[in-house]
Write a structure and sequence with these properties.
CATH architecture of the largest domain: 2-Layer Sandwich
Shape: globular
Number of helices: 9
CATH superfamily of the largest domain: Dihydrodipicolinate Reductase, domain 2
Oligomer: single chain
Structural class: alpha/beta
Radius of gyration: 20 Å
CATH class of the largest domain: Alpha Beta
Amino acid sequence: MTPARVSIVGGSGYAGGEVLRLLLGHPEVEVGQVTSESNSGKYVHATHPNLRQVTRLKYVSAAQLEPCDALFVALPHGQAMRRMEEFAALAPRVIDLSADHRLRNPDDYPRWYDHAHESLEWLGRYVYGLPEVNREAIRGATHVSGVGCNATATILALWPLFQADLVDRSRGVVVEVKAGSSEGGASAGPSSHHPDRSHAVRSYAPVRHRHTAEVLQALNTPGADPVHVHMSVTSIELVRGVLATAHVFLREEQREGFDLVDLWKAYRGAYGREPFVRLVRERQGVYRYPEPKILAGSNYTDVGFDYDPETGRIVAIAAIDNLMKGAAGTAVQSLNLMMGWEETVGLGFTGLHPV
């Protein structure tokens, strides 16, 4: 079969480079063009040295883009929404890695991103691109949004608990996220098109981190009592990686006789068939709970949990590579679903150990 022609807008930043790396090894894809305004005419390995001798592709200007089968857009927040008519005319399927189309409610953009949404006609056409919670909608979509890395880890840590209706929603969620330096794109230089570049300073926020909006959107489902989410994000000495530790309380009527076996049931029920979620809660050994270091370069999410029967507190933990499962990996996973391919194709790297 003829491979699908796929191009990337904004390929010089971290997320765009990761998409390119994955697509170059994808058996169903031919990479068409990769844009960078400041690097036009240069080889892509000028900004992504890991791609030396992998490809002879050169960056082009966005004005040189040709029609393709699918288009990844990895521009800074606020830029994709202004140019969506242009991009949609080039490809029948668009995946926007920025935050421009993640939130369904347009009122959330002034609240969380400090500006109004400038293309409301496109906002409603986008499907939130986290397959574990939105797979069937992605499968039938032509326009899919990216995901926030901190939101991805937090949602996947908590999703089974909310699906099983175990959480006392009135007591809220408190989550502490530890994040590597690549999350903010701070090392990508002035030409970076990393989707989170525009809020590098706010990537490490004690309160009101922007990705909270995605968690609220995922957990506050229609008909359920609202739940408040209190997220803090702090930097750690790591380049790649996110570790989310979330605290919730079991509903009072569930507490009698509840134990870890019930938590295992909830998590296995939600993730037992998920190709990229692994449950990690060992009784002994070094890696008894999720550890982001061993996930570098992989599309896996490692999820763990624990329970305090005296207080009814549940601790849910998730680790990801923020540039993979928190950005490019999930975007390619969504492309696979949109195109009707095997969901895992091109995403088989398992991570490294030791690290």
